[in-house]
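Lab notebook, bench 4. The sequencing result for the construct came back, and we need a structural model before the next group meeting so we can plan mutations. Quick request posted to the team channel:

Model the 3D structure of this chain.
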Amino acid sequence: MPLDFTLEDHTLPNGLRVIVQPDATTPTVTLNLWVGVGSRHEEAGRTGFAHLFEHLMFQGSENVANGEHFQALMGVGGRLNATTWFDRTTYFETIPSGALELALWLEADRHARLLPAVTQANLDNQRDVVKEEKRQRYDNQPYGQALTRIYATVFPSGHPYHHPTIGSMEDLDAASVQDVHDFFRRHYAPDNTVLTIVGDVTAERAVELVERYFGDIEHRAEPRRAPVTALPPLAEPAREEVVDEVPNDRIHLGFRLPAEGGDTRDDFLAASMALDCLGGLSFSPLEQRLVREEQRANAIDVGAMGFVDGVSLGLVIVDVAEGVDTDELEAEVCAELTAFADAGPTPVQMEAVCAQAERAWLSALAAKDERADIISHYTSLHDDPHYVNTFLDRLAAITPEAVRAAADRWLRPHSRAAVVYRAAAQQEEVA
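Done. Here's the predicted structure in token form:
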């Protein structure tokens, strides 16, 4: 049976796009706002600003005190947070139905009237918070800089995805209050925002409330640029070796993939399915042979990150077992990539990957907060809120030949960017 979530798609005169998906199964409502600004929109010398604003948005606004946004919604039993990524910044909360107006008022105040609260003191405070987050999540974690190194190796200098979302601490240190205000004015505006509401409210009531609280916002975002020129696969392997205090060696292989949206959407989906066939199943070639049978790898993770600015990213991560030659193991992984690109998936692999993806999709849609996030994702980045209903049909239409062709085009070993961590203790033993 096809999915048939009912969606109300409404755009306010000021450009705010509102998607409402009524669901009265429980007396709760999820608000999910996607602002079309992420680290890919940052300029040289101004990295980390998108993530910084994720923090500043909880420091108060014209009519809301510092910390009051959290206190007010958690005080009525809500849960809330925010995240920043390459292509967007997301703010979300799930609250009891009776708190919907409160949540909308709070969101409207910070999205329209944040700047009175962005003072030097708040800026300095949140810079310190971001620095501590970087220390905890990147600098002091084993392999914490691995993805940052992958981005820098896969994507050329100056490319929108070359630098990580956390940004440069030097750039943040150099930022003035005026710089930060200017960034907000360029990007935070109704015509650059999607608001999705899922839950115990009618579409008519939801739109009425959004118009009441957001309708008077007149600020417009600067024009959005077109995607950069699409990147082809790497013409030859790229590599970075890292000797660090890590538990064991680890191989990170990155591959350019087609962009997630537009004419290459199905190509991206086929490449993602190829990675899942290679290492995402219990009987995938990489998992079955290298982890389960030979036990030369402790674990293998694969995945595809869907981006929209001309390219996406595929990953194969191999945790090397103790005593195993890392270079030989990487060669074995490359051999499996070549074999798959030559032969393509088996019928059993295709069936299992489709079933696994369907299960994950339905599981995500079962929760209001995840459903709202998916709707915002495909509305904001792809102008397709109904993708929640059509994804499984698109998935089923991908053929084995399309998966093989995607692997042949994008996942050949000569197109890999390798970031290989060597455990310092093991290097000392060898020396």
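The radius of gyration is 23 Å.
Will bring this to the meeting.
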